[in-house]
Amino acid sequence: MADSMISTNAAHVPETHMHTETDNPLPPPTHAQSIASPINLILFALLLTLVYLRLRPKPTPTLSKPPPPIVFRVFTPPMLKPYNGENNMPVYLAVNGKVFDVSNGRNFYGPGGPYENFAGRDASRGLACGSFDEDMLTKDLEGPLDDLKGLGEEEWEAMRGWEERFQEKYLVVGKLVAVGDQEAPKEGS
Length: 189
What we know:
By secondary structure, this protein is of the alpha+beta class. It has six helices and four strands, in the order H-H-E-H-E-E-H-H-H-E. The chain has a four-stranded mixed β-sheet. The chain is rod-shaped.
């Protein structure tokens, strides 16, 4: 009787609702899909690389060695002469008795620059006269400093202008005195 009920009930179900194995033929799975496909492995490697680059320890920045401290000194012309930018020396020049460290302007005042004649020297007369010639410099480094006699008012004004520019831009590292001056350093000091 149970068989007859099933068959009679099946007869009342419309054909469109009956499901059989032939209605939707899916092939049986032959193997399971793997997450280890080549594209997934590449994406995973890329993700690991990005995470590493983001989280890796950063090297501690090293600060460059600071320049040696500059001490205000008293210079004589022979003591100032080596500060001409050659042999990795700083570039100093004197204007109106003040010695300036113009090393930041090495392209102008150091070897090969347009003002190279003034490096390691008293540049007062040359700057006042607007001349870069060698004859503007004191020849005898052991003698007295240039007293700047013979300069006109315009030349004094030009020299003061240069001195102000240097004071705004460069450090004053010392003062220039003549050899034998009471402020001049003694031999061996």
